[in-house]
Design goal:
The chain is an alpha/beta fold. The protein contains 9 helices and 4 strands, in the order E-H-E-H-E-H-H-E-H-H-H-H-H.
């Protein structure tokens, strides 16, 4: 049976490209596992569920090695752990890593695949480190320009308008909807006694 695994780093990204490639490779939709979180480690809910689903003789399909993970040592450990269970791995973007090929073509092919896996795992981890470095540089740069982070503050005039509407007989829900604030914001800005 073919099992597919896809991963994106954040909820605002799209899994369609990976899912389409995995379905085209012969993975059934009900055997497709998708995580929406960082590849820094393998503590991902759908990944763990996928591991429990895999049986000897199955084939795990992934679009690319960086979708598998971004930690060099863990990629190698997971890859070996899966193949040691008698499960094949097909990396669609890097067919030289496909372990079913190694079975047919022998030790030389496995040696080459191990070297490629080592290089790609290293590159994936370096890319993650660069992303984090760029993010920190961007935050430092924005702070130097006095850019504010976090949620925007509530316009005090809206709070006062909502309170005035409540005083003339509107419900809090109606008043908040009219001025465009949440009831939580209204209650959070009530004067304390």
């Amino acid at each position: 049976m073919k099992i597919g695994y896809a991963r994106i780093s954040s909820a605002d990204q799209n899994t369609d490209r990976q899912a389409d490639a995995l379905l085209l490779a012969g993975v059934d939709h009900e055997h497709l596992f998708i995580d929406k979180q960082s590849g820094k480690d393998f503590n991902r809910p759908q990944y763990q569920l996928m591991l429990m689903t895999l049986r000897a003789g199955d084939t795990l399909c992934i679009k690319s090695i960086d979708r598998f993970g971004r930690n060099y040592a863990e990629i190698q450990r997971e890859f070996k752990g899966i193949t040691d269970r008698g499960i094949f791995i097909n990396v669609l973007d890097t067919p030289i890593l496909n372990t079913d090929r190694q079975l047919v073509e022998g030790l030389t092919m496995q040696f080459i695949a191990d070297i490629i896996l080592t290089i790609l795992g290293y590159v994936a981890e370096q890319e993650r480190a660069l992303i984090k470095q760029r993010q920190l540089e961007g935050i430092r740069s924005a702070k130097a320009r006095y850019v504010k982070f976090g949620r925007p503050g509530i316009d005090q005039q809206k709070i006062l308008d909502a309170q005035a509407l409540v005083k003339v007989g509107h419900t809090i829900k109606q008043a908040c909807a009219t001025v465009g604030i949440s009831r939580r914001a209204y209650y959070n800005h009530l004067p304390t006694k």
